[in-house]
Design goal:
11 helices; 281 residues; elongated
Length: 281
């Protein structure tokens, strides 16, 4: 009995997906045909799976649930959800562009320009898995690999917004001063501004030095002497920075602390191999 029921369910979900794909194939060819090339069919199927939120773990379970609804209406509602994410991305990008720290970096400007183009041409039906093509600016904490398409763009812009808030709080002129002394040709280099600025602020806090002002820097020779317990010291420093900069937003505080943890692991890695941690800072 269970086997028969399972087979009936499989037939039902196969028919449901077939109806949906036939409709999408027709739309893709602008009504001229319900057939597409094998490559096009694979791309549309992959897009459909993404729009519906299906993966290997939930594929059968979700399709059984979806089979109770009209396939194209459900697909359109899921597609609309992606469009809403695209609109949120446009809003975040617009606000970020207006409030961007006045620190000239070619990779950052190019990345924001490419994301703007990506959002202007975003296709939630037939290319929802597409990513912005020119993201050359790295984040201090990368977007997880499981974030695809518009979800990646949303997460990237959200993290970049946090980084921008912190860099501005550290004072743009001070950050530029740090960049000038630490990175040759920084305006044209592919590096993360937040990472350099916050790493500098963390070590200054450990050294009990002010994190702002013209002298907001340190001698690299001091780092190995002072960092005896990097995890505890850098986490405490992260908390102090948030307090000093009056950063209370939970997501921003968490981001700074996550960065401090990743930095402490790199320091520990160097120390365990009897190497100087100064190259990290």
């Amino acid at each position: 009995m269970e086997i028969i029921e399972r087979n009936n369910n499989a037939d039902q979900t196969d028919e449901w997906m077939h109806k949906l794909l036939s409709k999408l194939f027709s739309e893709y060819t602008e009504g001229k045909s319900s057939s597409v090339t094998e490559e096009e069919a694979k791309d549309i199927f992959a897009s459909t799976v993404f729009v519906l939120g299906l993966d290997e773990e939930n594929y059968i379970e979700k399709l059984n649930e979806y089979a109770k609804h009209d396939p194209f209406k459900l697909y359109l509602s899921r597609s609309t959800r992606l469009e809403n994410y695209a609109d949120m991305c446009k809003h975040i990008l617009h606000k970020l562009t207006l409030d961007l720290a006045k620190i000239e970096n070619i990779a950052l400007k190019s990345t924001l320009r490419d994301i703007k183009t990506y959002l202007a041409n975003y296709d939630s039906k037939f290319a929802p898995l597409m990513l912005p093509s020119g993201i050359s600016y790295p984040l201090a904490i990368a977007v997880p690999d499981d974030k695809k398409g518009i979800y990646f763009a949303f997460e990237y812009l959200s993290r970049l917004t946090i980084e921008n808030i912190v860099v501005k709080a550290l004072d743009e002129n001070n950050v530029i001063n740090v960049l000038e002394k630490k990175i040759d040709g920084w305006r044209y280099s592919t590096f993360n501004i937040f990472e350099v600025a916050v790493a500098n602020a963390l070590i200054l806090t450990v050294l009990r030095e002010p994190i702002k002002g013209i002298n907001a820097e340190y001698k690299k020779t001091e780092i190995d002497d002072v960092l005896k317990f990097p995890e505890a010291q850098l986490m405490e420093a992260a908390h102090s920075i948030c307090t000093e900069l009056n950063i209370t937003h939970e997501g921003t505080v968490r981001y700074i602390k996550e960065f401090a943890i990743s930095l402490s692991r790199r320091v520990r890695f160097m120390m365990e191999r009897n190497l100087s941690a100064s190259c990290i800072f």
